[in-house]
Amino acid sequence: MQGVPRLTPPPESPGARLVGGDQLATSGLAIPSSAPLPPAVTATSWVVADLDSGAVVGACGAHEYATPASVQKLLLAATMLGRLDPQQIVTVNDADMQYEPGSSSAGLVEGGQYTVETLWLGLLLVSGNDAANVLARLGGGAAGAEGGVQEMNAQAKKLGAFQTHAVTPSGLDAPGQFTTAYDLALIARACFADAAFRRYALTKQAQIPAQPLKQREGFQIQNQNSLIEQYPGALGGKTGYTDLSRHTYVGAAERNGRRLVVTLLGAEHAPQLGWEQGAALLDWGFAQPATASVGRLVDPAEFVVAPSPSPVDPAMPSAAEAHARKTAPPAIALGAAAACVVLATALRRRRRRS
């Protein structure tokens, strides 16, 4: 992985790990005391939460810094979906095509013309880095894609995702770019609250139109998120991968009127793919009672974010958040600096011996 920028976590901010409740502050596993152990996964951190109530059903390393890869495109969606006209026609320029050679693209062509809706489909179905650049440029106004990234960071703070900092709109690795499994759950919750996002995320295939002036034929793209084909009640989500980030994943599903979201970071593809690890954690989450909780996804209205020179300087939790920490149900909270799979496997062995 020569040349890959290593993650350098920012200085710890005192309030960052308290967001959502102090039971989530551990670097290890946090589950209700009555819950069985979750399935072993290779992800270094994960969160399972209720999209509607905001309850965090379980987590491992919820506030541990990691790099997002293409799940960062969800922050782009949460920021720009409501601002851009889906029927607007956009011409792709040279700057839009500046992304890592060989990385995922929607197959756009410089000088080609596409609707914004086509760009969203290219972004969410096949993780198009070209589409990400165009959408960030549109949303950034006069400041272009750089302005779009600034808007993404402002949106992260509005959502309470104080440990998230974007440098690229696509999630391609860059120094100073990071997020957490908890922050991703906040961002995903905002995305799934948008009807257009829900429709795009469940779209199985779409057409990238021909560009006659560029002598480019049209072609079909397929949704890369296998959850929507293979998991009953799937609502969609987003896959991600880079050499630095490894596999990252966000997925959501509905069962018996209950909607859960799973976020995971730093996973390997064996013995299970990222979406399969997400599906296993969703199964575990749905098996817990609706009242199960070790914390919660905060409401953006709870925070007043003061201007700060630091990209991650969270406002302190409100009085409501402090109350939630005091009244949250007991949980298993075990510190673990390594991957969650190590912790879960060790606990299983210990239980079998006892």
Automatic annotation (TrEMBL):
Annotated residues for binding of substrate: K238
Pfam family of the protein (one): Peptidase_S11
SUPFAM superfamilies: beta-lactamase/transpeptidase-like
Location of the active site: S70, K73, S127
Domain Peptidase S11 D-alanyl-D-alanine carboxypeptidase A N-terminal: 37-268
Transmembrane domains' residue ranges: 328-347
One Gene Ontology MF term: serine-type D-Ala-D-Ala carboxypeptidase activity
Gene3D superfamilies according to UniProt: DD-peptidase/beta-lactamase superfamily (3.40.710.10)
GO biological process: cell wall organization; peptidoglycan biosynthetic process; proteolysis; regulation of cell shape
Keywords tagged on the record: Cell shape, Cell wall biogenesis/degradation, Hydrolase, Membrane, Peptidoglycan synthesis, Signal, Transmembrane, Transmembrane helix
Family, per entry: Belongs to the peptidase S11 family.
Protein name: Peptidase S11 D-alanyl-D-alanine carboxypeptidase A N-terminal domain-containing protein
Species this chain originates from: Rhizocola hellebori
